[in-house]
Amino acid sequence: MNFGERQTLVSTLLRDASRSGPLPFLRGWLRNPVGVGLPFPSSPWTARRLARAALDAAVPGGGPVLELGAGTGSVTQALVEFGCPADHIVAVERDPELCRALEQRFPSLQVLQGDALALDRTLAPTGPSSVRVVVCGLPMRAMPAAAAARCYGDAFRVMPPDGAIIQYTYGLRPPVDPRVVPKLVATFVGREWRNFPPMGIWRYSLAR
Question: In 46-117, at which residue ranges do the beta strands (DSSP E only) sit?
Fold first, then answer.
C-alpha cells in the first residue's frame, strides 16, 4: 500500500467513525478496555464482510441474528444494508452508554444490556429462545479460556444444529481455541486488510 492509498484509508476510517459516533465507543473503551478491545470501531469494509459472512451462515427460520458486543452499531448497520431489518437483530452490549446509542441509532433494534460472556443469563429474561446466527465482536483472545467456552456453549444452545458463530480478531491465530469447546470447528473466512489493524474473520460451528 503506497502513501496515497494509506491517506485514503485513514480518511475513510475517520469519516466512518464520525458517522457511527466514536465518543461513546471511546468512553466505553476507557471504562472497560479489556472488554472492548481496541479503542476504535471496525472499518466499514470489515463490518460489511462480517455481515455478509453472518447472513451466508444464517439458518433459515432459526430466529433473529444475535450480535454480541455490538458497540456503536457498525456491523448492525451493515446487516441492515444487506437486507436484514433491525427488528430481526438482537444486540447484546454491556456498556450502558453504547446501549443508549444503539437504541437511538436503530429504534426497532432489540438491545439487551448485559454480559455476553454470561450469555445464558443475559438472554434469559427477554431475549430470543432461538437465533439463526451469532456475530461476535468480543475480544476473545483477551478472555480466559473458560469464559470463551461458556459464551460459545451458550450461543450454540440457542441455535439450530447447523448454526454458526462469526468471530473476528486482530490476531493471526483462531481467537477461540477449538479445543476449549467440545466438537468446535474453526474455519478461516478471510482477512480484511483495509481495516486498521487488519482483521481476521473466522466461522465456528459444531462437528456433526
Answer: 65-68, 89-93, 110-113
